[in-house]
Design brief:
elongated; ion transport; VCCN1/2; transmembrane; 418 residues; transmembrane helix; disordered C terminus; mainly alpha; voltage-gated chloride channel activity
Length: 418
């Protein structure tokens, strides 16, 4: 049973869009024009036109979220930028005596400082409101029922060490995670270089399979990097390293680094190697598994959330009540004092949050590119180095044979006879 064509297919059929000459030559009788009701025709036109994105209504919550969303957008864009590896010139600039002025002038472009705009503005505004309220009460602009918001500073003196310890432990725990991630990637990079060196030295036959195995080894750090960093384009990063068929298999897999390891294992099985060499090469794969395990643990297990929430709540309550505590001593100076305190303490907490996920802070792109360059350079120079060493070996063997052809020099024994 045939189904009737839709209205859109009838309107856009090639028989109606052809010229009149082609219709007359093929003796095609055009169908009678169809009459559509007005409502379906309007619906059809609305579907073919480019729909405009829906405009979100402006609400009080959207206004309050405007600045935090702007700050988060800047921070996430800066996090996605590739980090460079330091060279000698960078270290000279890093320890320059002008670094303090340079850091101060670049404050407004820092993602850490820009991410602090919402909380600092909020707590500074609270301080301004408290100062305005107390001033209105002292100037008798409000009824006598309203009291002046003031309190003793003794509770803050007692709880200040607790807040300092919270921030120190929070930052120290985040830095330990950063150091652990750095060490894990150092092992992956060194293992990749060692694995490639062993393949270049051990495999003498099957040049095409050897080249493919080296490509898989170079592709592993890139696949691990894309596995750890959000919104990474693994197809673009591996385009020049793998063939199209291999790349399609890797992209379609659920766990890309494990798929690369499978390629490596299958390639080593097909190589014609002696058992000791095969065992040595297979032992190098354990470094890749270890790197995957450590990196996935760092990504999947953050610092205990109760500790992070406690630090955040402590900071918020501290700065909400700070203008009340400082009013008797500072009066309107509570506004800049709250600004400085919020900018300083929240900056320490923000640095701890940023380095808690270390892979966004490491120069993984540069590390992967460096590994690929080293392996490719070793592949290119392998034949030249081998030929040079063989020439030296032949030269040494010829020199030894020429020395063996002469009679050894007899020592002079005339003095001994005397």
């Amino acid at each position: 049973m045939t189904t009737p064509k839709s209205q859109f297919q009838t309107l856009s059929s090639p028989s109606l869009s052809s010229s009149s000459s082609s219709l007359s030559s093929s003796r095609f009788t055009p169908p009678k024009p169809l009459k559509f009701p007005s409502k379906p025709f309007k619906t059809l036109c609305s579907q073919t036109s480019n729909p405009r994105p829906p405009v979100k209504p402006i609400t009080f919550i959207s206004i309050l979220r405007a600045i935090p969303d702007w700050a988060d957008g800047i921070k996430e864009r800066r996090m996605k930028q590739s980090k460079p590896l330091y060279k000698h010139d960078d270290w000279v600039r890093h320890r320059s005596s002008l670094r303090h002025i340079r850091h101060l002038l670049s404050s407004f472009s820092s993602r850490v400082i820009l991410s602090l705009v919402p909380p600092v503005i909020a707590f500074t505004s609270v301080a301004a409101v408290v100062a305005s309220y107390n001033t209105a009460v002292l100037w008798h602009l409000l009824p006598e029922i309203f009291p002046v918001l003031r309190a003793s500073s003794l509770p803050y003196q007692l709880t200040a060490p607790a807040l300092a310890l919270l921030l120190v432990f929070r930052t120290e725990a985040s830095y330990s995670r950063f150091e652990e991630g750095r060490k894990a990637w150092s092992k992956v990079i060194s293992g990749t270089n060692d694995f490639a060196r062993q393949v270049i030295v051990s495999v003498e036959k099957d040049s095409s399979l050897k080249t493919a195995l080296l490509q898989y080894i170079m592709a592993f750090p890139v696949a691990l990097k894309c596995h750890l960093i959000y919104e990474s384009d693994i197809g673009r990063d591996l385009h020049g390293l793998l063939d199209d068929e291999d790349l399609a298999i890797v992209v379609s897999s659920n766990h890309r680094p494990h798929c690369i390891i499978q390629f490596i294992s299958q390639s080593m099985r097909l190589l014609d190697l002696e058992e000791p060499k095969r065992t040595l090469l297979e032992s190098k794969v354990s470094c890749f598994h270890e790197g995957i395990g450590v990196c996935e643990q760092i990504m999947g297990i953050p610092i205990p959330l109760s500790y992070t929430r406690l630090t955040s709540r402590f900071l918020v309550l501290w700065h909400l009540t700070l203008p009340i505590i400082l009013w008797d001593d500072c009066n309107w100076i509570v506004v800049p004092a709250t600004f400085v305190s919020a900018a300083s303490l929240f900056c320490i907490e923000e640095v701890g949050v940023l380095i808690e996920e270390p892979f966004q802070m490491l120069a993984l792109d540069e590390l992967c590119n460096r590994v690929c360059n080293h392996v490719q350079e070793a592949m290119k120079s392998e034949k030249k180095i081998k030929e040079t060493l063989l020439l030296k070996k032949d030269a040494n063997s010829s020199n030894n044979s020429s020395l063996n052809g002469h009679h050894p020099i007899q020592p002079n024994t005339s003095s001994s006879r005397k």
